[in-house]
Design brief:
Distance between the termini: 48 Å
Low-confidence stretches: 1-5
Oligomer: single chain
Number of helices: 3
Shape: globular
Largest sheet: 5 strands, antiparallel
CATH architecture of the largest domain: 2-Layer Sandwich
CATH superfamily of the largest domain: NusG, N-terminal domain
Number of strands: 11
Strand content: 35-45%
Mean pLDDT: 86
Length: about 180
């Protein structure tokens, strides 16, 4: 399985028995420590969100799993780290096609972690009223003016001039450059 050696720290999704997500997180964290894998397996996260429920007329904030039956693991995939995760009680396998697990995209991970409050929103030197040029995506080479900044989601609303009129477009911070 040495073709799996990526050497890069990335996030992977692990499938678990439904209802065992927190148990898998605890088991995996214990195994990482006991087997000395802290240099290969870094964080184990059960994606949750806060939801307001009303029980017996009382307002209660509870944590709800975003993806029941799934746990996110930040790791460097090697034969050893793959084996440790794969053989943790409650884990049924990695999400991905075939033998090799497929990492999550960076934007997906950042959005999830930010929404859970585990990572702060990116810092930016953009300000409302700044003129920017689009450097990626379908509006590449268009210029526009920032009308709104959403720090939590890492998004800008930019008024781009198309066909002689201003059109609001939502873009990621890394899709534009100042000027």
């Amino acid at each position: 399985m040495s073709d799996k050696e990526t050497g890069k720290k990335q996030w992977y999704v692990v499938h678990t028995y439904s209802g065992y997500e927190n148990k898998v997180k605890a088991n995996l964290e214990r195994r990482v420590e006991s087997m000395g894998m802290e240099d290969k397996i870094f964080r184990v996260v059960v994606p949750t969100e806060e939801v307001v429920e009303f029980k017996d007329g009382k307002r209660k904030v509870v944590q709800r799993k975003l993806f029941p039956g799934y746990v996110m693991v930040e790791m460097i995939v090697t034969d050893d780290s793959w084996y440790v995760v794969r053989n943790t009680p409650g884990v049924t396998g990695f999400v991905g096609s075939g033998v090799k697990p497929i990492p999550l995209g960076e934007h997906e991970v950042q959005g999830l972690l930010r929404s859970m409050g585990l990572e702060s929103a990116p810092r930016t030197d953009f300000a409302v009223g700044d003129t920017v040029t689009v450097i990626a995506g379908p509006f590449v080479n268009f210029s526009g003016t920032i009308s709104d900044i959403n720090m939590e989601r890492g998004k800008l609303r930019v008024n781009v001039s198309m066909f002689g009129r201003e059109t609001p477009v939502e873009l990621d911070f890394d899709q534009v450059t100042k000027g």
